[in-house]
Design a protein that fits this description.
Layout (H helix, E strand, L loop, with lengths): L3 E12 L2 E13 L4 E5 L6 H8 L7 E6 L2 E2 L5 H10 L1 E5 L10 H6 L11 H7 L15 H14 L4 E5 L7 H17 L3 E6 L2 H4 L4 E6 L2 E7 L12
Parallel strand pairs: 3-8, 3-9, 6-7, 7-8
Antiparallel strand pairs: 1-2, 1-4, 4-5, 9-10
Helix pairs in contact: 4-5, 5-6
Length: 233
C-alpha cells in the first residue's frame, strides 16, 4: 500500500480580492521507505505540497491519505497529534533552542511522542555524541543541521519532510548533511521527502517529482540513484 496518496488535491489562498491557486488537482502516490525529491521553480507549489503533507495546512479540496488515514478531514487537535507522531521536519533554518544543549534540543521530542528513539543513539548516528553538552552557538552550520536531523528522527516518525535542508550550507557541508540524512533514513526505514531547487540532490533520489504552476508535470523513477560520493557537487 502507498504510504502517501493525494487524490485531486487543490489548495487556494485568498490574496486580497483575488484567489491564488497554489495546487491544482494534484494526484500523487508515494511508497513507504523511498527517498523522494520535489523539484520546481519558486511559486510552483512545492512548499504547499510539503505543508499539506506535514499537516501544517489543509487542502481546499481533495483527499490526502497517509497509510490509509484521511488527514484532510482531521480536526486541529488531531492534526497536532499527527504532526507529533507521524512526521518529522528538517528545515533550512535549524530551529534549535539556543538556551538548550545539543542533548536537550534532541530530547525535547520525548514530550510529544509515545515511542521516541534514544537521544544518544541519534547523536551518535549523526556523529555528534561528543558535542552533546554544547550549545547551538558553539556549533558550525552543518553541525546544527545534523542536530536538527537527529531531533527529527528521534521522534521516530514514519515520514521525514525536508524543506531545502542544505540551502544555507556550502556544497561540501551540504553533501555531508545529505549523506547523514540518507543513511539514517535508510537505517530506520523512513520515507524522506525533500523540497529543493538543487538538481544535484535529485540524482540521489528514488523518485523525482517535478512541479510547475501547482501541478505535477513529471514523475521520474530512478532504478539506480547515485550515492552522495558519485554526485559532482
Amino acid at each position: 500500500m502507498d504510504t502517501i496518496r493525494f487524490e485531486k488535491v487543490s489548495k487556494v489562498y485568498q490574496v486580497g480580492d483575488h484567489e491564488q491557486k497554489a495546487l491544482d488537482g494534484v494526484d500523487l502516490a508515494i511508497e513507504g521507505g523511498k527517498f523522494v525529491v520535489i523539484l520546481g521553480p519558486s511559486g510552483a507549489g512545492k512548499s504547499t505540497l510539503l505543508n499539506l503533507l506535514g499537516g501544517l495546512d489543509s487542502p481546499t479540496s481533495g483527499k490526502i491519505s497517509i497509510e490509509g488515514q484521511d488527514i484532510s478531514k482531521l480536526s486541529n487537535d488531531e492534526l497536532a497529534d499527527y504532526r507529533a507522531k507521524t512526521v518529522g521536519f528538517v528545515f533550512q533554518s535549524y530551529n534549535l533552542i539556543p538556551t538548550l544543549t545539543v542533548f536537550e534540543n534532541v530530547s525535547l521530542v520525548k514530550e510529544i511522542t509515545d515511542n521516541p528513539l534514544p537521544t544518544k543513539d541519534m547523536l551518535k548516528d549523526v556523529g555528534l555524541l561528543d558535542h552533546l553538552d554544547k550549545f547551538p552557538s558553539e556549533l558550525s552550520g552543518g553541525e546544527q543541521q545534523r542536530v536538527s536531523i537527529a531531533r527529527a528522527l528521534a521522534k521516530n516518525p514514519k515520514i521525514l519532510l525536508c524543506d531545502e535542508p542544505t540551502g544555507a550550507l556550502d556544497s561540501e557541508t551540504g553533501a555531508m548533511v545529505l549523506k547523514t540524512l540518507l543513511a539514517m533514513a535508510r537505517n530506520y526505514n523512513k520515507t524522506i521527502i525533500i523540497v529543493t531547487h538543487n538538481q544535484n540532490i535529485a540524482k540521489m533520489a528514488d523518485e523525482i517529482i517535478r512541479v510547475k504552476s501547482g501541478r505535477i508535470r513529471e514523475i521520474i523513477r530512478q532504478e539506480k540513484p547515485l550515492s552522495v560520493e558519485e554526485v559532482d557537487w
